[in-house]
């Protein structure tokens, strides 16, 4: 979540449960549903907005719970855009060179 705040978005690979499709159609927050089966892999952009976390998927933003991400996310990437690389600090004031060095330390 911090990476989404620092960099604007994070790409997340999900092992999407079938219940997420039903929750999306009903405009309910994505949350863990015990016993849900897998609908397969799904890629979303995770963004931190309005005091909570949302993903961009199927043409709109959709709210998710932290435990949904913890349960179903199996990979993540951070976007670093050229406009952020040409400045010395992120919009939040963090040193861009240090943020990039910190990312390199993650496994």
Poorly predicted ranges (pLDDT <50, ≥5 residues)?
Answer: none
Strand content: 25-35%
Strand order of the largest sheet: 4-3-2-1-5
| Class by alpha and beta content | alpha+beta
Main sheet specs: 5 strands, antiparallel
The portion of residues assigned to helices is 25-40%
| Large-scale geometry | elongated
Provide the residue-averaged pLDDT: 85
Describe the overall structure.
The protein has one domain (2-80). Helices cover 32% and strands 34% of the residues. It has 5 helices and 5 strands, in the order αβαβββαβαα. The chain has helices at 2-7, 18-25, 66-72, 82-85, 96-104, and strands spanning 10-17, 38-49, 52-57, 60-63, 73-78. The protein has a 5-stranded antiparallel β-sheet. A hairpin with a 2-residue loop joins β2 (38-49) and β3. The two termini are 16 Å apart. The model has no long low-confidence stretch (mean pLDDT 85).
What is the secondary structure topology, with strand pairs?
Elements: H1 2-7, E1 10-17, H2 18-25, E2 38-49, E3 52-57, E4 60-63, H3 66-72, E5 73-78, H4 82-85, H5 96-104
Antiparallel strand pairs: 1-2, 1-5, 2-3, 3-4
Summary?
The protein is of the alpha+beta class. It has five helices and five strands; from the N terminus they run αβαβββαβαα. It is elongated.
């Amino acid at each position: 979540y911090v990476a989404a705040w620092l960099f604007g978005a994070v790409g997340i690979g999900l092992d999407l449960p079938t219940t997420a499709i039903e929750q999306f159609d009903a405009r309910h927050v994505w949350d863990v549903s015990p016993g849900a089966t897998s609908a397969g892999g799904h890629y979303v952009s995770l963004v931190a907005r309005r005091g909570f976390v949302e993903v961009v998927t199927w043409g709109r933003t959709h709210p998710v719970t932290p435990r949904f991400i913890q349960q179903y996310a199996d990979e993540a990437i951070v976007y670093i855009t050229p406009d952020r690389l040409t400045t010395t600090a992120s919009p939040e004031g963090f040193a861009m060179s240090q943020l990039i060095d910190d990312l390199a330390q993650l496994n």
